[in-house]
Amino acid sequence: MAHRWKNDLTWDDVTPEAAYLNRRQIMAGAMGLGLASVLPKAAKAETPEPNSWEDITSYNNFYEFGTGKSDPAKYAGSLITEGWEVVIDGMVDKPGTYKMDDIMAAMTIEERIYRFRCVEAWSMVIPWNGFELKDLLEMAGVQAEGKYVAFETANRPDQMPGLAYPVLDWPYVEGLRMDEAMHPLTMMATGIYGRDIPNQNGAPMRLVVPWKYGFKSIKSIVRITVTDQEPPTSWNKANGREYGFYSNVNPQVDHPRWSQASERVIGSGLFAKRQPTLMFNGYEEEVAGLYEGMDLSKFY
């Protein structure tokens, strides 16, 4: 199809899985030493033995299972993903409840490799398996009046113990402008490193928008709504001063509490220095046109 994004990253660019699996230890060690002590990227022989597959989810955020970094790994096993369904509604020609199995059968699953940088200012290149969000929206038939796409995470108190606490206004919600949603870089991820995404990382389907910060990556999606109004987003509702609707990687605009001008790369070598953060996370050529004429210090 003509709209497909042509990926110029190769497996040589990918963060070694061992480094990804051990990022909790890497980050802890760097903080303890007061420097960026990270694993060598190219020399696989120098990387430690990878932890068990469960370790991939031992340092992440999924507040529906608790606010601790290890809480998702402890509690997400209670989430039932078998028979998963996604409601697609709003300004679409074919609103309804779509079974995940049917969605997967209809999509061409492709392995994608995205340069993905964490909100903690650590960057990685991660191979995601999935399909373009555009394909799913076209399946439902987006109407001309639709200007935004809203997303909603599962809200299952019996399976998600974190929902017992008013950390955020549940259910977790996120949104994109329509041109962002239809961009070929925007994908629905169903796997990582060639394996199905575990519950802790947002099974069975999560959003990946590689030019935006990580909190734009809504997990375990149960509803997608096409609307003509900018939808609310969870972190913007919680603290609009710090978290805008767009969440673009923009090193020229600091977060109110820290700089976003530089980052460290997991896998770049021992005593690695911070490097300048790239505009739009390195995808400026592909996505800058979406924001032409906008004041990105105002629309952050």
Describe this entry's structure for a reader.
With about 300 residues, this protein is an alpha+beta fold. The protein has helices spanning about 15-20, 25-35, 70-75, 100-105, 135-140, 180, 235-240, 285; strands at about 85-90, 95-100, 110-115, 120-130, 150-155, 175, 185-190, 195, 205-210, 220-225, 260-265, 275. A hairpin with a 5-residue loop joins strand 1 and strand 2 (about 95-100). The two termini are about 30 Å apart.
| Biggest pleated sheet | 7 strands, mixed
Task: Spell out the helices and strands N to C.
Answer: HHHEEHEEHEEHEEEEHEEH
What would you call the structural class?
alpha+beta
**Topology, number of strands:** 12
Instruction: Give start-end ranges of low-pLDDT stretches.
Output: 30-52
Number of helices: 8
Mean pLDDT: 83
**Gross morphology:** globular
What is the CA-based Rg, rounded? 19 Å
Relative helix content: 10-25%
Key traits:
300 residues; 21% strand; 8 helices; alpha+beta; seven-stranded mixed β-sheet
Q: How would you summarize the topology of this molecule?
A:
Blueprint: H1 17-21, H2 23-33, H3 71-75, E1 85-90, E2 96-99, H4 100-106, E3 110-117, E4 122-132, H5 133-140, E5 148-153, E6 173-177, H6 178-181, E7 187-192, E8 195-196, E9 206-208, E10 221-227, H7 234-238, E11 262-265, E12 275-276, H8 284-287
Parallel strand pairs: 1-10, 4-11
Antiparallel strand pairs: 1-2, 3-4, 4-7, 5-6, 5-10, 7-8, 7-9, 11-12
Summary, kept brief:
With 300 residues, the protein is of the alpha+beta class.
